[in-house]
DNA sequence: ACCTGAACACCGTTCAAGT
DNA sequence: ACCTGAACACCGTTCAAGT
């Protein structure tokens, strides 16, 4: 069973010195810390975020961070929420085409997480921040106006959440390790008498991720709010 | 934004000595190592698995593990796959009621992961082991016999995968931190003018996880294999 | 108010040795 | 073939101190 890099893109021992030795660094601030944390996470993955490394990028001492932030978990929480903001036009969200409004928000949500692949795996294990709560609120409002009963609203929201999260977490992780998928498929080929169906379908290789995502959302919406 | 225990149940500095000072330990073996790793993961969560701690439980020196296993990632891979075995009756899988067969496998899969809450978060980021591949093979076979086109088979499998994984990862993590959910809901209550819909629906508190899971699977299956 | 270096209590893993 | 302790190169974070 091949080890897999879980989210860490492997730049090897790329130990960089002070990032911009030229200009004077602006003073530390929560905003700079979070923005730089997102950059670092994008570049090095979830295991690449180290307090010392983050401080390096900011041109400060490692311990300076702890004045602005109480611990590393808080850096994660803030970086995560910062990436989940939704700038959707209110017109769209209130348009009579509720289905389009839902799909737009969900696809944007997924796209935001795929731009920052560490975020998807993180989201389910952290407390829900304001930006993701705003998305759920928006979703609840649209579904409610679309006719979903009060009693079914939680279930509807969570169904869609489940699908979005599963699709995005999977996609984000497979994405980072094509060579692993290839290895997996080759291992499968060796064992094609054991796994004939998925080997034939090349399950681990051929996949229209975007299309599958969209179809699944449609199926769920069909079930949650039957078309008349 | 409250920090959350991401999978680590907090037994504080509970530094235990040799586990059973009485009897002689059986010799180290890969099976014992994996079984004990699963126990440790169940008890302490994903961050609780330390090579030294695992060796403690096994009554061996920390470095002895490295003769049986090449590194910690391999322990994760093996523990993960060991938990995903499916013992489903072949009669069921080949029964004409394909829908029941699918639902049974998926519910069993989810239940297995919920019995070991660390496993769900781990599965999408590791290479796929033989037991999970066997489940996907079974799923592919059933759907194929149920009439799903060859061209749609990958999409069907991944849709269901997405839903199962999203539902289980979410459930497993929320499960571990009821107090966080309560805190979240109370924070929501404070901001109920900002999130009126989900606050009213008590999104973070009232939820029939099992029912939502089952309904979502049904909706997806309805879409993937329309009932005639 | 904001930043810092030294130090502590951990980790995973290498290595050179033991039996 | 199997196991071990010492040691290395890291981590997050505490603390006592600087400006």
UniProtKB/TrEMBL annotation, chains A, B:
Pfam families: TetR_C_1, TetR_N. One of its GO terms (molecular function) is transcription cis-regulatory region binding. PROSITE patterns: HTH_TETR_2 (PS50977). Residues 27-87 form the HTH tetR-type domain. It comes from the Bacteria. The keyword Membrane does not apply. Residues 1-13 have a biased composition (Basic and acidic residues). Keywords: DNA-binding, Repressor, Transcription, Transcription regulation. GO terms for biological process: negative regulation of DNA-templated transcription; response to antibiotic. Coiled coil: none annotated. The keyword Transcription applies. Residues 1-24 are annotated as: Disordered. Residues 50-69 bind DNA. TetR is the repressor of the tetracycline resistance element; its N-terminal region forms a helix-turn-helix structure and binds DNA. Binding of tetracycline to TetR reduces the repressor affinity for the tetracycline resistance gene (tetA) promoter operator sites. This is Transcriptional regulator, TetR family. It comes from Rhizobium aethiopicum.
